[in-house]
Amino acid sequence: MLKFAMGTCVKGADSQIAGAVGRRQYGAGRASGAALEVAEVRAPASIFPDDALIGLDIKNAYGQAQWTDALLAAVSKAPKLAVPMETMWNCLRIAVYMQDENGNGWHMFPIYGSLIQGNLEGHPALYMIIAVVLHIVVNDPRLSQWSTRIRHWPYVDDWVIQVPLDAACLLMKSVLEATQKYALPLQLPECAFHVPALADQTEEEWSEEVKQLSQTISYCPEGLILLGTEACKEQEIPLYPPRVPERLPEPALKRKDKALRLASATLEMLALATLAGGKQPGFAIARGIIAHSFDCDAGVLPCSTLLPHASIIDDAVENIVARIMDLGSEQLDADQKARIG
Predict the structure, then answer these.
(1) Measured in Å, how far apart are the chain's first and last C-alpha atoms?
(2) Residue 232 gets which letter from DSSP?
(3) Residue 120 has what pLDDT?
(4) Phi, psi of 53 (to 5 degrees)
(5) Which of 201, 216, 207 is nearest to 166 (CA)?
(6) Structural domain boundaries of the chain?
(7) Is 80 exceeded by the pLDDT of residue 194?
(8) H or E stretch including 56?
(9) Which of 3, 4, 210, 221 is most exposed, with the fewest beta carbons within 10 Å of its own?
(10) Closest Cα partner for 118 from 168, 183, 208?
């Protein structure tokens, strides 16, 4: 009931919340937000390869966010949401009123407790706090001369920033000050940066700015993983370095290898299966799992990069279907292959 009540309040404040979190917040209920963020990051990374791409991770932001900060953010940015939040914060309960089915009377149910991790799991209050932190960094006068070159892409509590190298250390100082002010410390071991133009350089060839930045956060020569998706393990999404478009990133290669191993095991299973319906599970595995191995990559990698590897997956699926039909894969006609696809 509590989730239902708060969910209704959140829905009623949708327009204010959308304005509060800003168009750059890719995790606030946006469809395909991760894939969209990757596309948005890749374009300026190609245009400004000498700038640093910094990936920042706020340490357990859902658990770290303070109620007072959340409430103040709601009051200033989404006042429609502030009332139920203040009720939860002040009275530790929400009063839900429900009318009789026959319409003769109303009943009040006090609901106590909170949502997961202080009512902030999936709650827009966290997005609004991060929007406040972002506002502080964007308007830091020390960074004003680079304001047109610094770009921000937050994804829930993970944050990608593109910044000229000569401003990178100053930017990190500003970010650390702002996040500490709102009790949202950075998880520095998880933070990293990548400079596309340095893909072919050794550490001895780095500029002084790169060396200074690497003392605060680590340098990733192969590009960044989109923070927030690394917890998905096999579905992690790479912020692919545009300088090497012909090379498939490591997470995608792992997905490809796993799909091919599953295809091989499926063929072995089919060889031992009974004739009467025993081969049908093989089709379900091929169509429902193997054929979708590159789903998360298709939205973020160029077709020219992905297609040669995807065709190998397609061949594996066709081999399984042909084995189920007691045919060779070369015996499948164009219509049968189109149906598989």
Answers:
(1) 44
(2) G
(3) 43
(4) -105, 115
(5) 207
(6) 25-61+139-239, 250-340
(7) yes
(8) strand 52-57
(9) 4
(10) 183
> What is the rounded average pLDDT of the residues 311-338?
76
**What are 212-260's pLDDT values in tens digits?**
999 999 998 777 776 555 445 555 666 655 455 567 777 788 889 999 9
CA distance 75 to 78: 6
The reported pLDDT for the residue numbered 204 is 83
Residues 6+ apart with CB under 8 A from 222: 194, 241, 249, 250
Q: Is 96 exposed, middle or buried (0-12, 13-18, 19+ CB in 10 A)?
A: middle
CA distance 50 to 194: 10
Sign of CA dihedral 60, 231, 123, 107: negative
Answer with the residue of higher pLDDT: 320 or 39.
Answer: 320
Which position has the token pair 């979708």? 292
Mean pLDDT of 199-213: 85
CA distance 332 to 114: 57
Rounded distance, CA 183 to CA 279, Å? 57
Instruction: Enter the tokens of residue 279.
Output: 């081969």
Residue 162 confidence class, pLDDT cut points 50, 70, 90: very high
Residue with tokens 């015996």: 331
Of 251, 249, 238, 262, give the one whose Cα is nearest residue 313. 262
State how far Cα 305 lies from the chain centre: 21
Q: Kindly state the helix (H) or strand (E) to which residue 95 belongs, with its residue range.
A: strand 93-99
Q: Say how far apart CA 172 and CA 9 lie, in whole Å.
A: 36
Helical packing angle, 280-288 and 250-272, nearest 10°: 170
Instruction: Kindly write down the DSSP assignment for every residue of 127-158, as one continuous string.
Output: HHHHHHHHHHHHT-GGGGGGTTT-EEEEETTE
Judge residue 142's burial from the number of C-beta atoms within 10 Å of its C-beta, 0-12 exposed, 13-18 middle, 19 or more buried.
exposed
Give yes or no for residue 164 having a pLDDT over 90. yes
Confidence of residue 27 (pLDDT cuts 50, 70, 90): low
Strand, coil or helix: what is 163? Answer: strand
